Amino acid sequence: MFSPHRLRSSGSACQKKQQTKDTLTYDILKDAIEKMLDTSCGEDYEKALAAYIASQEDVVQVDMLHSRMFGNKTYIELELQVDGNLPLREAHAIAERIQNYWPDCKTACDAVLLMHRNIFFLLFMEETMALKLIKLTREYEKQLCEMLDEWKSDQEINHTNRSPWVIFKNDYHDFDYYLEHLELKEATKDLVPDSVFFLLDEDRGRLLGAVNIRHYLNDSLLKEGGHIGDGIRPSERRKGYATEIIRLALIECKKLGIDKVLMTCNKDNIGSARSIVKNGGILENEFVNANGDVEQRYWISI
What we know:
Blueprint: H1 4-36, H2 43-54, E1 59-70, E2 73-82, H3 88-99, E3 107-116, E4 119-123, E5 131-134, H4 141-158, H5 175-180, E6 194-201, E7 206-214, H6 219-223, E8 228-232, H7 241-255, E9 260-266, H8 270-278, E10 282-288, E11 294-301
Helix pairs in contact: 7-8
């Protein structure tokens, strides 16, 4: 027989053991949840990092720095200023150098926003975003159909716009015809030759959006439409991809010999306007279009 004293002792030991297990389970669960959430690295971390960056050669000041942790990765969103009298190429070089100077080897830079002569550039590091523009081929037929199915459903339900229009002008289920007639090779009475690219996330093998580049402007495009029409699929919006697709499109414009790019957007489309400005867009004027909406015209020098 067990004495009452020994029985009580045994019970107490079991309770302590269970409490230890519960505490361990809670700690594991808490750590797992925190890694799933998008949280800041803390004010002290951000202040120390901002001071470090501000001390770097050629950096005038740090205007904004935000950190966020997701899983075991840390991302930094940074806005800094450099001397506005520097050549643009040198200003770019400073931003790229800052990207490579993070004191914490586990820290990856999500985006550096560089202010130079009131022009903003969003520079993405390859380690955090494997994005590129591609021409459509049969290899991407499945991804195209999946993206456009989602996009058209959103248009029907939420009555969102159809930009860029060219990717919706033909039935994508007839892929051969769609591919053959996607780009306009020769000018017509109302249309100019164009190039169509799709934004590919290489890590996920997923198409995120599309951009239509008009090779030059006719009278109609000069007033409304401009050189570039772009769009991001509904499920990938508000993630910075619109800014990146414009940045990549400007590179293609440069290849076409375009050194001054016109982009237009509805004044109510704040996100689109912000993406244009971040890529150096300077507002020239506003006008009321045929639908009664206020349209903005921006020029980007490249």
